[in-house]
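Running this now, will post back.
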Amino acid sequence: MGAALHLAHVTELPARARKRKGGGGGGDGYDQFVTRVYQDKRMTPQSRELILLLAWLTDRDPNRFDEHGHPRKWRPRASEILGEYGRPGGRRESRLADLLYADRPRYDFPPLSYDQPCAAPMIRRDGLCGQPANEHDYEVDHETGWKTPVYFCRRHEPWGRQLHQRRVQDPGPEPIPNAGGLILSYFENADPAAWARLYKEAAVWKRDRSWEPPKAYSLCADDWPVPGQDPVPPRARLRLVLGGTDLDVSE
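Update: finished.
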């Protein structure tokens, strides 16, 4: 891949005894898998693209076996299909890195709005201030660790500073991830440590050296509790086997 993200020896396709040409039939679960991906409301365009590509490489790619009938590693084939981009003479960007980075498990802060009213409580009357806000801080849910923006106006900046001080003194638990983690929700036998390194390398390639895997939660979105929702029931997954741990980025 030249200067792009190098993921050789990262992942191998499952060693199944199949013919080297042609694909499986509709009874092998592939069609149901694809349908489930499209029906998953958590799915983003990037995660959908990568998951469907991995599924195709696993069960449908006519070249998924070498001349000896052994499964090929998916990384070179995925890189070939997805390609690279960038200005001539500049750094080549990796579409594979883009898609992996977009699926990294993480907590995304709620979006901010710049036309919110001040939420400071009034002293001489009931209710909140309601004047146009110019600053914000956060309140933390001590069950989920999720943050909710709280807005305040210039008059109530002292109240906002108190809110900030309380949050610093009691930051709450590690937030439950609410974005990414969909790849491992669709493929079984995935080594979490190897995938954490793979996500990390994609993050570094995307100039994000601050990303780290969740400490209190898995990399699989199916495992993350969502307030007010039932746990995701167990379901069939395709088998994607990681082969080797020598993950590196080649410049």
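The two ends are 10 Å apart (CA to CA). More later if anyone needs it.
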